Structure formats: C-alpha cells, structure tokens
Amino acid sequence: MARYLRIRCIVKTERTGAHERISAICGLAPDGSHWTLTHGDAVSQVESGTCAFYIERLGGQRAEVIVAMDVHAHKYLKTVADRDQPDQLLFLPACLHVAHSPNSVPSQRVVGA
What we know:
Shape: globular
Radius of gyration: 13 Å
Largest sheet: 4 strands, mixed
Structural class: mainly beta
Strand order of the largest sheet: 1-5-6-7
Order of helices and strands: EEEEHEEEH
Low-confidence stretches: 100-113
Number of domains: 1
Strand content: 25-35%
Helix content: 10-25%
C-alpha cells in the first residue's frame, strides 16, 4: 500500500515550464520530522505506487496530486483540479527548512502526514 503524504511546502525554481517550476516537495512526518523529495523522485514514487501525495486547502479539503505530462512528454506533479500548470502546488508556501536532502522521505510504516 502506498504511503499517503501531505505536501505542505515546495521549493520553486525560476523556470516557466510546468515540469520545471517545482524542484522539490516537502512535508512533515507524523513524528514531526521534515521530509523532502526532489520533483523527479516524487514523480517516480507516484508512478511506482510507493507514495501518494495530497495538499490540503482551506476548510480541510484535500486535493490529490497526480503525475501529468506536457506536450513534450515531460512529467510533472499537479493536483487533479489543475489544468496545464501545477497552480495549486505553486500556491503552497516556499519551504524554509535548512537542509533539503533528496530522498529523505519517512519510513515505509508511515501511512500519512
């Protein structure tokens, strides 16, 4: 079963392509520890079924995060409600955590964040 993790913040780039605008996603594990995944690793984990991600909007509504593909076959993350750009993810705050280490996702036993 996939780990179901909430994305709380992102690391943005200055690029404009949908697949280049986010370089990493971040969140908190149930124990309060910070996790970070590069954009590419997050896409791979969704595609392999290792992780499923969501964001939480005002009022506690969840928006599922999926992998999309642009016209040039570049894969990127977006919510099911987004069109061509990952707008809802881009509205998340920038991650201010000091150490962004790729693949620092919580252990397999985590079922949510």
